[in-house]
Structure formats: C-alpha cells, structure tokens
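Run log // design_07
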C-alpha cells in the first residue's frame, strides 16, 4: 500500500454519464508521484472525459476524486494553480508570437512580471525557441507548435501535468523529442498523466491503464501487463499468410491473427491453441508453416483485455485489423 504522501491521484468509483451513455464507468485509479502514467484506449474509451474530471473541468456523476491531496471538484480552483493541461489540438494563439503566447499564459497564472520574464527566457532556451521568439505561432510546424504548447503548460512549474493525446498530429521524430522532454520533467519532480492510442508511447510509461468503453480493463507497468500474456502469443512464418489466417481463426482458442509483414501474429487463450495444433491444422490444409512462441506486446495485451471485457458483456469483439464476415 502506497503512503498518502506518495500518491498524486486517487479515484474510487469514478463515473460519468451523459444521459443514457456512461462514458466513464466505476473507475478506480492510483497514480504515484514523479511518474508518467498512461491512459491507453481507442477514441470513445473515456480517456478525455476522465482527464477533464480529474482536472475539475467536469463534474462526475458518481465517485470520489483526490488530486494532490485536494478533493475534486470541490477544491478545483485551488488545484488549477498546481496543474498544467495540454490538449491534442494546438490551443494557443496563432496570431501571437512565441514570446507573446508565453507572456499571456504567465499572466493567466498570475506570475509576477520579473519572475515571468525570467521563466520565459528559460523556456525559450529549454524548448529550442531562441531564434523564434518573435515568430508567429501560426507559422510554425506541428512539432514546433507542440513544443510551444508544452512550454506554455509548464510555465508555472506545475506539480502535475495532464496531456490529452498531445502527439496525435506530429511526426515520429517530434514525438520522440516530446517524450524526452516528458522524462526530463519527471526527473525534475513533475507527475504526468498522458492519454494516447500509440502503442510505442504506451510502452514508455512507468505505469499504464487500459480503458475500454469507459471501464478500466487493465492497470500495471508495461512489463507486468505483457508478462501476464506469456505463453499466449505465437508467430507463424508462411508464404500463404491470408490462407493461413483463415484456417487459424477457425481453431478454438485463437483470439486474433494479425498479419505483420510476412508473418502472422496469433493471440490465443493459452490452453486449447498450442503451436502443435496450429501446425497440424495448417499442414492439413496443405499450408507449409513454422509456428513458434514470441514475446507478448502491449498490442497483444490490449486485444486480450478488450476481448475478455467484450466476452463478459456478451459481445463479439474483433481485434484491430480483423474484418467482419
């Protein structure tokens, strides 16, 4: 059990309903300080709604929220002095310069003028805007806008930073640079909660929650989550991938079969679908193939937990890339 002093966010039974739609359904979270905690899930899974409730921007229908020792939403105004918030859309003023945007945000945070000037000069260097302070924000690239938005979100050195799919509109190199900045912030003591639908970003988080249709279906470190699937993932090497996939999906215990280049990656229930059974089924259809175990990935975890959740609801759930029949 973590001590109260080490916890940045704690929720119990967090729920948000919009009429007959339950967007967030009875979610329990515990986020430790000085770590990057990830929300992974598809669009509509409840990530953004959860973040807005944690920030105090949206009132929950039920449940309890404690953020930095404050009761939310009752103490939301106090909380806003200690948090930063960055959305997936560039939210600064495109007709103001880099410096003017930062000056405006320092004023919003009620920073004293001398302190604000020193902090802005510091951020211009730290976020590589030394020669662009007078450039209009609207003329910058996606990666530059992203860096400016992050600089603005941390101008007041918040204890806790909320990032809602912040890298959805930038290139892979800019995403990597952005994550280096996030690790620098956690090294300096900032706690970060970031929502994403990128598996490679999820792997970078210290701890991860997977949301599916508003429910928390998995919570743990990436290593813990993938370790729970050991023995359930197989790799099939064959030149007849499409034919092999059709055969394998009919075998009891095969949850998904995704084509990855010249191979098929299988997720199984770990009981009925053994490598030997896979090989026998394929050879019986005249398909030559090599079948072996492979280390689980976070995508495998995502497919497994959402499949299990759908089964519990009595629904059919296709894995990413699966066609309907």
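design_07 sequence
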């Amino acid at each position: 059990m973590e001590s109260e002093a080490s916890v940045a966010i704690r929720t119990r039974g967090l729920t948000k309903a919009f009429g007959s739609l339950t967007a967030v359904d009875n979610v329990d979270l515990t986020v430790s300080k000085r770590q990057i905690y990830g929300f992974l899930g598809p669009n509509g899974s409840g990530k953004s709604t959860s973040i807005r409730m944690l920030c105090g921007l949206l009132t929950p229908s039920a449940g309890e929220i404690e953020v930095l020792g404050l009761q939310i939403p009752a103490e939301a105004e106090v909380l806003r002095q200690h948090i930063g918030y960055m959305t997936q859309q560039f939210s600064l003023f495109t007709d103001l310069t880099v410096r003017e945007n930062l000056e405006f945000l320092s004023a919003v945070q009620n920073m004293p003028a001398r302190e604000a000037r020193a902090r802005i000069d510091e951020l211009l260097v730290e976020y590589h805007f030394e020669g662009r302070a007078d450039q209009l924000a609207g003329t910058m690239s996606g990666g530059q806008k992203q860096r400016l938005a992050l600089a603005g979100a941390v101008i007041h050195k918040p204890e806790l930073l909320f990032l809602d799919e912040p890298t959805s509109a930038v290139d892979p190199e800019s995403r990597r640079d952005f994550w280096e900045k996030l690790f620098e912030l956690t090294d300096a003591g900032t706690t970060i909660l970031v929502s994403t639908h990128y598996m490679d970003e999820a792997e970078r988080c210290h701890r991860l929650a997977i949301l599916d249709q508003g429910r928390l279906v998995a919570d743990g470190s990436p290593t813990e989550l993938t370790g729970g699937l050991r023995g359930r993932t197989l790799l099939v090497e064959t030149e007849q991938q499409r034919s092999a996939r059709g055969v394998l999906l009919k075998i009891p215990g095969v949850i998904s079969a995704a084509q990855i280049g010249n191979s098929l990656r299988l997720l199984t229930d770990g009981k009925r679908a053994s490598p030997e059974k896979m090989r026998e089924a394929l050879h019986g259809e005249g398909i030559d193939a090599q079948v072996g175990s492979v280390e689980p990935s976070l995508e495998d975890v995502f497919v497994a937990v959402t499949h299990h959740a759908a089964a519990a609801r009595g629904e059919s759930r296709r894995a990413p890339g699966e066609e309907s029949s």
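The domain at 4-220 is CATH 3.40.50.300 (Rossmann fold).
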